[in-house]
Amino acid sequence: MLENVRIGVFICHCGMNIAKSVDVKALREYASRLQGVVWAEENEFTCSETGQENIRKAIKEHSLNRVVVAACSPKLHELTFRRTVSEADLNPFLFEMANIREHCSWPHYHEPEKATEKARHIVAAAVERAKWLEPIGKVASPVKGSALVIGGGIAGMHVALSLTDYGFDVHLVERQPFLGGRMLQLGEVFPTEDCSTCTSPMGLRQHRRCLCNAGVLANPRIKTYTSSEVQSLEGYIGNFRATIHTEPQLVEPTQCIACGECERVCPIEVPNEQEGGLEKRKTIFMPHLHALPYAYVLDPQSCNRCGKCVEVCPTKAIDLGRETSGTSIDIGTIVVATGFDEYQPKGLLDYGECADVVTQQTLASMLDPSGPTHGRAVRPSDGTHPKRIAMVQCVGSRDPKTHAYCSKICCMIALKHAKSIKERDPTAEVTILYKDIRLPGRNYEDYYYDCHRLGVRLVWGDALGVTETKQGLELAVSKGVGGTETVGADLVVLSSAMVPSLGTEELARRLGLSLGGDGFFAELHPKLAPIDTRVDGIFLAGGCQGPKDIAETLNQAEGAASRAAILMAKGQVEMDLAKARVDESLCIGCANCVYACPYRAIEMTPSGVARVIEVACKGCGICAAECPAKTMELRHFKDEQIDAAIGGILREA
Amino acid sequence: MEQFEPKVLAICCWWCSYGAADLAGTSKMDYPTGVRIVRVPCTGRVDPLHVLQAFKEGADGVLVAGCLKDGCHYVDGNIKAEARVLWLKKKLKAVGLGDERLEMYLMSAAQSDRFVQAATEFTERVAKLGPSPLKR
Question: What is the complex's ipTM, to 2 decimals?
Fold first, then answer.
């Protein structure tokens, strides 16, 4: 405790809000008698400019070195008064607030005597605590001017491009051998129905086919790591170090000229997963017509190392002996944009058993003009053209047995596909089985009317099962009080849920992020910090945070880029040092605090004692409570400060 | 005999129950005046020694109010606090103070009703137990 504490207590009437049930005059007299209090006064509205001026004046006149304001909740005006006292050259942390409105005069307004008594306890607690308060300074830490973007889909690429526009360097890490993500697998995308192959990696700036010369890959500020994953992360905001693990690039993308000689001689064929397994591909293959980098990829799992491709490659781009590599990069900020997967509804409605039950992703590949069937819907079982198509909504979504959430975009996908099919073949019969049609986006409702106009049949109900008959498939439907119906179909398309992409849990562990109950990355606050994460300096963009359409994804990507750019543009983070502190001379080196800290903000020094990384600490104080040697403390909520408040509030008054 | 009004210390997390108590006040919801609130940044900051200090200073009961499961502002401080409270309840029972004078409640900042209910129920429970034996 500071010697010669000189506390000033300022009691607010808050008009009648406090004065109606608390005897403010008696409270002031009580406060003035408390040990350490050299000045006590009442104000009509302490937060008013007059009230604040009175505080500043009293600090000077009475040489106050502690200020207590007994008024509303600190949630309302703590920051106001911290600023007030600092304007009178008092450290802002030498201020304490006594909440006698929300915690006293309001809930106990009908018991004025008891309310006044309780107010005395609250003021006594603040005065006792004030005696133990200590000035707290600020800490600044530099922020490196480069970012790591994890995920090379539409979200990640957009973040990367935006960050370079802001003038920062970007390391873009993509697990696949090529960029593009989910959008690469789509044909037309709503609501504009422009070809996703044109809009995906470049926004509207560049046609994707020109991307070999422009865009992400040609941007000198973006370093792209394909076939790569983030293996580990250490450090803190502004000063992260990530290790990137890259699978062997058996075909060097910068040397490959995409002549296709290797594919011609390759003897092995496997199903092509990019196109929903509809077609086969060689072991060495071009992953997509518009893959970027536009280079052949060798799948090491199915390769028998015959070496024929190596022999024919004119640029000597293939080397079967290449090994995995690791790179360490230093960055200031991180954006996670790892996207989503389509739920594979194995066992539901014969999916996986009957070849003609497919998901919307497969149908999207079929309807993509540059896809495996060149824009034609086909029955996978025999390759014929389906005349009757039935779609089932909410497969794996809005069902507590699988995923309780709404996947948000499946209604639009189904209507978009239905519309597309009917426009190409007006005689096709398209039925959509739905629970609710949800189209909340701008211009999205138009699809609903378009589908009605085109004769798409919308049936409300639950799918009971699919049976194979000689005439095709039969989808049994329960329509509640409307009875049951059997819908005949040549192709059944399931609108399957969006789920977190494979490896999300592992990545969360590596980065120190948390996941929501739905398995997607959790934002810091759903409304007030929708892009931030629990780790300062790491932000989220796109489907990795939950179901989103492309427009929403780009909105968030712009936001994430901007959040990261703000930090990097400032070049440093400055924060109050109301954080944990360890007395190294007393530390017993048990590391309990290291394990207890949710933010990896404590590390063990080589000499075996704990050290707090102040910029990473968020001031929860969990470490201080866990420390068995009582050597870890949280500034501003030290043991003696908490104990003083407890003593003050419980003492007879 | 006048009815015994217990002194209850409510150790409130800044991010949830402190706000819930604020909201209870704003909504003019009634709860016993014997409930006195001390703020901590997170219930994970609460050391068993703070609770013992409260009993030493004359509390008849101590309630610790943290965020809902999965709702902790600091990831899992509430879970750690709950474990410490359960541990300490056993110790309090062993030393003869009883395990009913300490309780952990979980709530969000919007659940003023839950705060009022916790404050009222806990006060009633402690009133039945009578004054803390440390004061006799």
Answer: 0.98
